[in-house]
């Protein structure tokens, strides 16, 4: 069978235009306004099911905060005298806090205010795409730096009569032999550490992470991209400030909450 001469197949095919693909924004129940209002009424002292709001996953994790059992998402956590909000989104990291002083010293009221603000932020921010990020087990020690974490441990001292705490800042790298190794970038003795020391070490860790992944993306081998603590890092990979601020008082608060006894 032959096609008539007057049929132009190219013209016919060009007349069909495919609609551009639009990603589906996931919200449990389908109505973000309704879900946000429901979430803001939650009592965080009781467990709740995992939900999605505007593509953000909200997973309620059981935590004991200053002796009180709560169920909190990763982006909402306690520091001394305040609740902090930290949301990783498509354009960066949103950070804020609600102090107890803003709620006339009422711990529960400041939590409620922080939770409502947290949900409000999720409604207006764009969720990040799939990412290979391991969130810190305790949000107050979150670095916001790829493959970089903070570990802390305390040991009772007979000399000082209290637990002596030390923290290490490390970056995980895959060695040429295929084994993953954590290289220590900074060591902080709780009794001596300062905000400036923490900031400088976090900046160096961020620079190492930025430069390492730049090398890998450019085709460097694992051996070529492996960085030691004293490796020279080009200036353009150093951030002015670390993505997430950790203070000496944050480390003290972390240790005090876990020790249940005097720390130093």
Task: Report on this structure.
27% of the residues lie in helices and 26% in strands. It has helices at residues 9-14, 32-40, 107-124, 195-217, 222-225, 248-259, and strands spanning 51-53, 56-58, 61-65, 68-72, 76-79, 82-89, 92-99, 148-157, 162-174, 180-189. The strands form four sheets. A three-stranded antiparallel sheet has the order 5-6-7. Strands 8-9-10 form a three-stranded antiparallel sheet, covered by helices on one side. It is globular and about 50 Å long.
Task: List descriptors.
three-stranded antiparallel β-sheet, 6 helices, globular, alpha+beta
List the topology elements.
Elements: H1 9-14, H2 32-40, E1 51-53, E2 56-58, E3 61-65, E4 68-72, E5 76-79, E6 82-89, E7 92-99, H3 107-124, E8 148-157, E9 162-174, E10 180-189, H4 195-217, H5 222-225, H6 248-259
Helix pairs in contact: 2-3
